[in-house]
Amino acid sequence: MKTYTTMDAIGDIFVIYGIVIVVSMLVAVVIRGIVWALSRNPTQTAKAPAKPAPVVQPVVAGVPQEHLAVITATIAAMLGAHRIVHIETPGRGYSWTAEARTVHHTSHTPHKS
User: Fold this and answer.
1) d(CA 31, CA 24)
2) Tens of pLDDT along 45-76?
3) How far apart (Å, rounded) are the C-alpha atoms in residues 112 and 23?
4) Helix and strand numbers, DSSP H then E, in the chain
5) Residue 105 CB partners (closer than 8 Å, separation 6+)
6) Using CA atoms, how far apart are residues 81 and 83, in angstroms rounded to an integer?
7) pTM
8) How far apart are CA 29 and CA 31, in angstroms?
């Protein structure tokens, strides 16, 4: 009777690993085929060239251009080159989110034992 050695076990591991690779590749090919078959549209003709995205100019209601220039200059002087993405007057009902953020952020601070 032959004994099952470590080399036999390592050989079996490589065989099983190879079988798993082959099966997973076959499954990936089948899934790719299904996706390709379902994505085909028989009524679809040649695609028209994509239109360039329109250039959107920022519209800031109620904030004078002089104030924007001052805010931009201040940020550039203090922090370096930044771009202002959005400016609006503070609305009502946002204080609870600010409070929740404050509590959450302060919960991460280490405490002295």
Assistant:
1) 10
2) 555 566 666 665 555 567 778 887 888 788 88
3) 55
4) 3, 0
5) none
6) 7
7) 0.35
8) 5
Contact 84, 71 (CB under 8 A): yes
Backbone torsion region of residue 96, taken as left when φ is above 0, otherwise alpha when ψ lies between -120 and 50, otherwise beta: alpha
Task: Tell me the pLDDT tens digit for each residue of 23-35.
Answer: 999 999 999 999 8
**Cα–chain-centroid distance for residue 84?**
22
Q: Are 68 and 87 in contact (CB under 8 A)?
A: yes
Rg (CA), the chain: 31
Cβ atoms of 41 and 47 within 8 Å: the answer is no
